[in-house]
Amino acid sequence: MSIILSEAEAKTLLQKALTYSKANECEVNLQGEEWSNIRYALNKVSTCGSKVYKTLSVQSAFGTKVGVATIDEFDDASLEKVVRRSEELAQLAPENPEYVGLVGPQKYLPATGFFDSTASMEAVDRAKAVAQSIQIARSQKQTVAGYLEDRTGFSAMMNSKELFAYYPSTKINFSATIRTDNGTGSGFAAQGVSDFSKLNTASATQVALTKALGTVGARAIEPGKYTVILEPLAAAVMLEHLFRSLDARSADEGRSFLSKSGGKTKLGERIVDERVTIYSDPTNPELPASPWGADGRAQEKINWIEKGVIKNLSYSRYWAEKKGVKAIPAPNNFMMVGGNATLDELIKSTQRGVLVTKFWYIRSVDPQSLLVTGLTRDGTFYIENGKIKHPVKNFRFNESPVIMLNNLETLGKVERVVSSEGSFTNYLIPAMKIREFTFTSLSDAV
Amino acid sequence: MHVVGKGASALMLAQLPTFGRPVSAEALLAPGLDVAVKKRLADAALNAAKSKGASYADVRIGRYLNQFIITRENKVQSIINTESYGVGVRVIVDGCWGFAAVSDAKTEAELAKAAEKAVAMAKANVLLSDEPVQLAPQKGFGEITWKTPIQKNAFEIPIKEKVDLLMTVNGAAMNNGANFVNSQFFFVNEQKYFASTDGSYIDQDVHRQWPGFTVTAIDPKTGKFETRDALSAPVGMGYEYLQVNPSDKITGITTRYNKGYDMLEDVVAAAKQAKQKLSAKSVEAGKYDLVLDPSHTWLTIHESVGHPLELDRVLGYEANFAGTSFATLDKWKSKNFNYGSKQVDLFADKTQVGSLGAVGYDDEGVQTKRWDLVKDGTLVNYMATRDQVHIVGENESQGCSYADSWGTVQFQRMANVSLAAGKEPLSVDELIKDVKKGIYIIGDSSYSIDQQRYNFQFSGQLAYEIKNGQIAGMLKDVAYQSNTQEFWNSCVKVCDERDFRLGGSFFDGKGQPIQSNAVSHGSATARFNGVNVINTGRKI
């Protein structure tokens, strides 16, 4: 049996697994993936690897006692064995008072995240893509380190309430860092695509090279409050701290930046500049995502922040039932509406400011205000009278994405970016000009 | 990069590498393969590798067991038991590494096939390599075993007993003013068999655990909330860590713990302190002398000493993600790079009893040891693996190779790195007595450092103002920013061995794809003069 099953093949297998169930409720999940990666540093390949797997996970429930078992063999005996095992584990489990049963049949939006160009990638394609990146560094006598990974997979789900879901997808993430040979310059670029034909490691590496050369000779300027122009990547890694904090239960419980005195929340209130609209949409062709969530609930196009107002929060089904509201699931992608200004126009309109191309090691400082700290990295530049004057030494900042979006000056164009903070999550985020961004100290790091 | 804080949620865990397949609690006690079977399987892989042209091969047969119990208030949110078994084979062919892994392999044929795949990968990589691997010599140890010196295997303690303890802890938090409490146990057992063409057959049984909680207090009038995490440490110990002797407790402004942890006592203090934090004085930014408790200092050591002294970072292998290091080879070669003050001795030690990084042998068959990194304030060494150690002029690896699974390739990871206790007798009270304007910080919280490990910012669970040698009261909104070299040079006093304690990271992330490592860092309470403190309070 191949690793990537068609919808019909997945359906047949899941139907067969369900026939063995003797529990009150049963949910079966099937996932398969072919994942390959290649890593390089000092202009040569350092490691490469691949992982191929297909797993069936069975969740059985007796009342509110729930057990889960998994298996990676798919003959009839194995299917029965894994169902029986999940039932045994359910019988041994403590009652889970927050278990609210299975989701019934859903209607899913059409989402296309699978590309044959990616699914048919071979080792030689990866090697060629990386070789193009290394070639640029070598030809310029600089040093590159990078990473390329591609995933082709599918997820399918069926339950005893007649829900069936299937979603195949492909993803590629590439990133490269060029450091100048004297160690005084460093530049970074990343590209996330679903379709291999859109991957261009050479152009991304060229961007990293330009930034690396441009950062040589960085000068120190005083930390303080500056107008900043955030390239889309820098904006995205700030905003992902806000994206992760849209859970209704935390807000209702009083332990979120959206909580208010008296046990109330800010839902329905304007919390940021009215030009800010943040939404999710599994059907967006620029950032396709699964049209269903982990528990099978359908994903819709949802405005989380609309014209500055916090419009929706995500709910577990338990919490939504308790609160008597619609159970909007946490989304599978995030995007933000942009403006028309090009990066050049954002720079031209800036009297005095700092262009930030990337942030690094961002961690929460205060969940009450969503204050986070981190540093600029791999390309930070001083702007004066509408022009980039010179590279600057890296800064540490202490800032909240909420305060940042209240201090919005201008929105730039939207780009698909890959989080550089470790998760490889892709977003559609615009460049943005922000006033009074708080840099608190200087770093000697290059 | 420390990836998960103490308030680790299920969401955060889901972002970490797959732990393994769910199994019953009883399955965690089932014996793995007999050691004689493992030797036979290992020999099949080693022989296949050699016959296909490998000049060196090692094989890791791993069974990785985990148990997580996660609760909130009066509810058990999840009990997860996982098992992962498989084999990883690493080879050198024509001076180039190759690696292949296979899950659930229990036959000689499957291991031989994995070895052949690793050889094929090495041969493919030869085309992209311009420098052969130089492997430091390593003698074979024959057939040997090593086990974490635990008294009680945590997996043998019935789930009910563990759940009851967490429920008691949660109840105590709620009875003492907490609005919410989340608590959890993580238990890990790595059963690792390593064999190599050097003639080693090493069977190791490694145990770790991490009990923890987060207590939340809310002021409904203002809508403000504060949290206090457990002052426990993740440890390389058995369940005995949760059964405390009075000698394990360090009394003072709040009780801290050494080789035993009183979770119930700590959660009562936490509930009261979380409430107290709501009305604590907001710190005035400025320069302060910091008195740092070991429950806090471990993370500062981890980020500002552990990571920059990883040789692969220094060389540039982590440049695309975790970063490089300010502690470059020229600084080491100068023999006079002033990493810290004369009071600062920092050492690596993979033999520390009770530590997360303690093993008998690393994941390339090197016997573990202790060595100096910074001696009398001067940089003297790094942490390296067999294929790197020649770069620092050594002919023997320090034993810093680790893989987080049978399915991932081993690479250079941080050893336990500690600040040595002061040589002169000095208690915490005596240390504080001389501080005129200072802040005493206990527990770890927010953390961030740049990609070359110069500029950092940390905060703690508890901060107390020190005025004229006396603790004056609780502070909030405290974070300190410094530069690594400046910070360690501001270290003026370290308490003596009586106060030496370990903290640690259960989930230290590094590499692409990212791998997780567990590592401890010890110190005694230490004083750092004139550190820049900022106020982190904001209104939105």
Short recap of the structure:
Chain A: InterPro entries: Metalloprtase-TldD/E_C, Metalloprtase-TldD/E_N, TldD/PmbA_N, TldD/PmbA_sf. The complex is a heterodimer of chains A (446) and B (540). By secondary structure, chain A is of the alpha+beta class.
Would you mind describing this structure in some detail?
The complex is a heterodimer of chains A (446) and B (540). Chain A is 23% helix and 37% strand. Chain A has ten helices and 19 strands. In chain A, strands 7, 12, 13, 14, 15, 16, 17, 18 and 19 form a nine-stranded mixed sheet that branches. In chain A, α4 (123-139) packs parallel to α5 (201-215). Chain B contains ten helices and 28 strands. In chain B, β22 (462-467) and β23 (470-476) form a beta hairpin. Chain B is globular and about 70 Å long. Mean pLDDT of chain B is 94; it is low at 4-18. Chains A and B meet through β1, β2, β3, α2 and β4 of A and β1, β3, β4, α3 and β8 of B. Chain B: Residues 286-533 form the Metalloprotease TldD/E C-terminal domain.
